[in-house]
Amino acid sequence: MSRFSEIKRLYQITAVQLRYGLDDLLPDDPRTRLPKLMRKSLFWIRNQHPDKPLGERLRLALQSLGPVWVKFGQMMSTRRDLFPPHIADQLALLQDRVAPFDGALARKQIEKSLGGPLDTWFADFDQTPLASASIAQVHTATLKENGREVVLKVIRPDILPVIQADIKLMYRMARLLSRFMPEARRLRPVEVIREYEKTLLDELDLMREAANAIQLRRNFDGSDSLYVPEVFTDYSRSNLLVMERIYGIQVSDVEALKANGTDMKLLSEKAVNVFFTQVFRDSFFHADMHPGNIFVSHKNPVDPQWIALDFGIVGTLNREDKRYLAENLLAFFNRDYRKVAELHVDSGWVPPDTNVDEFEFAIRTVCEPIFEKPLADISFGHVLLNLFNTARRFNMEVQPQLVLLQKTLLYVEGLGRQLYPQLDLWDTAKPFLEDWMSRQVGPQAIIGAVRDKAPFWAEKLPELPELLYDSLRQGKVMNQRIDKLYDNFMTSRRQQAQARFCFGVGATLIICSAILFGNQVDVYPVVSVTAGAMFWLFGWRAYTK
């Protein structure tokens, strides 16, 4: 991007922001006087939407700026640790409703990726896209090899330069925000842009998405709760993903689900179980479960099955995070706020010098009024949000893996209650968590650990006598080496002591000779110098042995 083009794009972005009145985001502070003065100088650009709330104006502005900014808004909606609810809730409404690009151009891109005419591998290619989003769009075809119906997801052509140019401008704006906005230290705008850049560039690599889909499909192989389409890796590339075509009912189409005779209660409960299975059993969860990516199979509506799509964003948790998260949730179920506070400190999520009593009281103040309502009326996801917002006041460090988890949990709970408003997520999740915890501690956990390690020890058992002999022999050799090193060390210390003694005597004799010579004594100065030189020679020899 040339300097002129960059200035032109920056003006376009600034104009859109001012037309939606986003300068209202600047707080009243002496450090924001210059930006506000600069805003007044652009008097011909007025706020055209003064009647709309600030959060809605921000969402509409991002939609106007194009796909890169839409994706950025979607990412920001997950950072509820950084933004107030009236902003984050509006950003969560952003959808990838982007106009498709020419199907003929998509065909050329696919042929370039495969290195030959598309008809070599596929039949019935439909140039009219099935779906279009900010990063890629999807076309249907039939695989000639086996007659399977497939979808071809292709990255938008020339999207990378657009992304790089807009991200460069985002960095410039973030640095200005850091300089002029008082809360910039907490919002960390440069770090937010860096995280967004990584997420967006990861989504541009469709082989990465293919790997995620294969992993998730393997985790739920044979499951009647979740189906993951098959990926055809032989035809997939970094900018092309070929996947089995699925037929189902989009989860947002509640009327169609009811018309199909779907058991809505069971479907919503399965959503909760699938989510917690991904998190606690597999440590690998689909982190972009908005309605556009989730379908329900037509088959067997009495025992419905979920279908997942779009695996560009996944989350992982390590063993320690899973353990602390499960214990936190169970402590919430039992209203043990002291345990919640202690777990946050033990896990390192809040500083070790946090006053646990004050932290417990803050959590109790937020949560007790919520628990006065029936459990079925309590939003599990919003309780978690309240916890994070409370912990933020105690300098809780941002946990990226928990932010993704929080966003996904809100999606899952929202879907479940849309399908079955009486869903009691607490009642559904608690038995799962209690069972998982019972398998992590106690006799069952010990038996499981032994069983998991048994193949390893069975392989190593025949080698144990030889390993033991080698260890003992190496220990003996090591002791001999240590003894030799110690002897050498002591010898060196004695030699250094002798050298220091000889140097000291030699220096004393030479000084004495100088004094005698000054007093015009004839013979003794020569003898003293000679003796001093001899002692220095002995000292040098002792030092260099």
UniProtKB/TrEMBL annotation:
It is an enzyme of class 2 (transferase). Pathway: Cofactor biosynthesis; ubiquinone biosynthesis [regulation]. Keywords: ATP-binding, Cell inner membrane, Cell membrane, Kinase, Membrane, Nucleotide-binding, Transferase, Transmembrane, Transmembrane helix, Ubiquinone, Ubiquinone biosynthesis. InterPro entries: ABC1_dom, Kinase-like_dom_sf, UbiB, UbiB_bact, UbiB_kinase. Residues 94-344 form the ABC1 atypical kinase-like domain. ATP binds at L130, A131, S132, A133, S134, I135, A136, Q137, V138, K153. Its EC number is 2.7.-.-. The chain crosses the membrane at residues 499-517, 523-543. GO terms for cellular component: plasma membrane. The active site is at D288 (proton acceptor). GO terms for molecular function: ATP binding; protein kinase activity. It is found in: Cell membrane. Its main location: membrane. It is a multi-pass membrane protein. GO terms for biological process: regulation of ubiquinone biosynthetic process; ubiquinone biosynthetic process. It holds the Pfam family ABC1. The keyword Cell wall biogenesis/degradation does not apply. PANTHER family: CHAPERONE-ACTIVITY OF BC1 COMPLEX CABC1 -RELATED, PROTEIN ACTIVITY OF BC1 COMPLEX KINASE 7, CHLOROPLASTIC. Is probably a protein kinase regulator of UbiI activity which is involved in aerobic coenzyme Q (ubiquinone) biosynthesis. Belongs to the protein kinase superfamily. ADCK protein kinase family. This is Probable protein kinase UbiB. The lineage of its organism: Bacteria, Pseudomonadati, Pseudomonadota, Gammaproteobacteria, Vibrionales. The gene is ubiB.
